[in-house]
From TrEMBL:
Topology within the bilayer: Multi-pass membrane protein
UniProt KW Transmembrane helix keyword: yes
Lineage: Eukaryota, Metazoa, Ecdysozoa, Arthropoda, Hexapoda
TM spans (from-to): 30-51, 85-103, 110-131, 172-194, 200-219, 321-341, 347-370, 382-404
Pfam families, alphabetized: CLN3
GO BP, sorted A to Z: lysosome organization; regulation of intracellular pH
GO cellular component: endomembrane system; lysosomal membrane
Organism: Odynerus spinipes
Highest taxon listed in the record's lineage: Eukaryota
Entry protein name: Battenin
Annotated compartments: Endomembrane system; Lysosome membrane
UniProt keyword terms in alphabetical order: Lysosome, Membrane, Transmembrane, Transmembrane helix, Transport
Keyword Membrane: yes
Family per record: Belongs to the battenin family.
Length: 421
């Protein structure tokens, strides 16, 4: 004869099961935000990593005379290798639509499922269009569509994160940094054996993973509940919903957000000027990497730095983002003079500087949004996080505009003799 479970024992079992379910849900959400961050930025990163190849295959080069086995043109030793169009053009095509989305999306209705479906469809369409494009405008259109997907996904998921514990900001940021490594490394590796078109078509698996993660891995909170933290334990509580903010209320939040947005925008302005105004002009002859391969692996190196710093906020928190902006400006000066005078004798020194550049950029991003998630009142947090996403895009867009005339000016210079050669 078995005895029934006492009420006290039943309550203990129920509490244990509830705590276990809470822990399982928390880990599912943390993992889901990491994957979503990676998938969201993957296409954006790939388009920038492939920028030099896209321009070379679609626009040709100004002084190319020979073809490599990878459909990327090379130039004789002693001449500068310059595309007729700077990779800043791809950067602008990649960031201006993204910026437009980030400016408008925070002020539009928040239908999260419809937004994510749009992101998935646009991401897939971008890969397909660029891979099959035979004209310049079609290639640029594919980049634009990919940009719309990335921008809408970022502003949507950062806004949506206000319904989850603040730790998802860290895993989202880490995932976007992971996209840098996975995207740049996968492109650089696959492009070694495949042409650009086939490489991009293989990457259609990423939008599929994004969809599966959002609808089958992420645990969506009920509309009337918001996760809060009590004594360090995540829990759910029924709360009274905050009234919707008017357009005027949202605009009035902007001045108070400038202390976060201006330093972040400056960091991104400097680093993307380096990435798409200077990387392709750094050229080492007679080494183990050809010039077009140097561009690809500089992108990989940069993304490694971004991933490390975007994953570090739970270990190291930095409040003074303006310091990172100053340090990033010094990187601009060092690498600008390298492209003009070729005074850095070894490419490994450049790789070290680029890694440091990525650490600064990723650190500025994750620390800015982490600070906002802890300092801004919950009632304002959703819209504030969405608005702040436009800061990095504004900096990137300005960098793209500046990169093009600087690229043309440096390409008009004679190629110097490298120090130590």
């Amino acid at each position: 004869m078995t005895k029934g479970i006492l009420p006290i024992e039943r309550n203990v079992v129920d509490e244990f099961d509830e705590e276990r379910n809470i822990r399982r849900t928390r880990w599912r959400n943390l993992i889901a935000f990491w994957i979503l961050g990676m998938c969201n930025n993957y296409g954006y990163v790939v388009m920038l990593s492939a920028a030099h190849d896209i321009l070379d295959s679609r626009f040709g080069t100004s002084n190319a005379t020979t073809e490599s086995s990878n459909n990327v043109t090379e130039v004789p030793i002693g001449e500068r290798s310059c595309n007729t169009v700077s990779t800043g053009a791809i950067l602008l095509a990649d960031i201006l639509p993204c910026l437009l989305i980030k400016i408008t999306a925070p002020f539009l209705p928040f239908f999260v499922h419809a937004r994510l479906a749009t992101c998935v469809l646009f991401s897939a369409a971008g890969f397909v269009i660029v891979s099959v494009s035979t004209t310049e405008w079609l290639a640029i259109l594919g980049v634009v569509i990919t940009s719309i997907s990335s921008g809408l996904g970022e502003v949507t998921m950062l806004s949506y994160s206000h319904q989850y514990p603040k730790q998802v900001i860290s895993t989202w940021s880490s995932g976007t940094g992971g996209a840098g490594i996975v995207g740049a490394l996968s492109y650089a590796s696959l492009a070694t054996w495949l042409n650009t078109s086939d490489t991009l078509l293989l990457m259609l698996v990423v939008p599929f993973i994004q969809a599966m993660t959002f609808w089958f891995v992420l645990v969506h909170p009920p509309q009337t509940k918001i996760p809060i933290t009590k004594n360090g334990i995540d829990s759910q509580e029924q709360i009274i919903e905050v009234p919707r903010k008017s357009f005027k209320d949202k605009i009035n939040l902007v001045p108070g957000l400038l202390k976060y947005m201006i330093p972040l925008g400056l960091v991104y302005f400097f680093e993307y000027f380096i990435n798409h105004g200077l990387y392709e002009l750094i050229q080492y002859d007679g080494i183990w990497l050809k010039h077009y391969e140097q561009y690809r692996w500089l992108q990989v190196d940069y993304q490694i730095g971004v991933f490390i710093s975007r994953s570090s906020v739970n270990l190291v928190t930095i409040n003074r983002i303006w310091i990172m902006a100053v340090l990033q400006f010094f990187n601009v000066i060092v690498l600008l003079f390298e492209t003009i005078y070729y005074y850095i004798p070894n490419i490994w020194i450049v790789f070290t500087i680029v890694l440091w550049e990525g650490l600064l950029g990723g650190g500025a991003y994750v620390n800015t949004f982490y600070r906002m998630s802890t300092e801004i009142p919950r009632a304002d947090r959703k819209i504030s996080l969405g608005i702040a996403t436009m800061a990095d895009s504004i900096g990137i867009a300005l960098a793209g505009w500046l990169a093009m005339p600087v690229h043309n000016a440096i390409c008009s210079l004679s190629k110097p003799t490298r120090l130590g050669s």
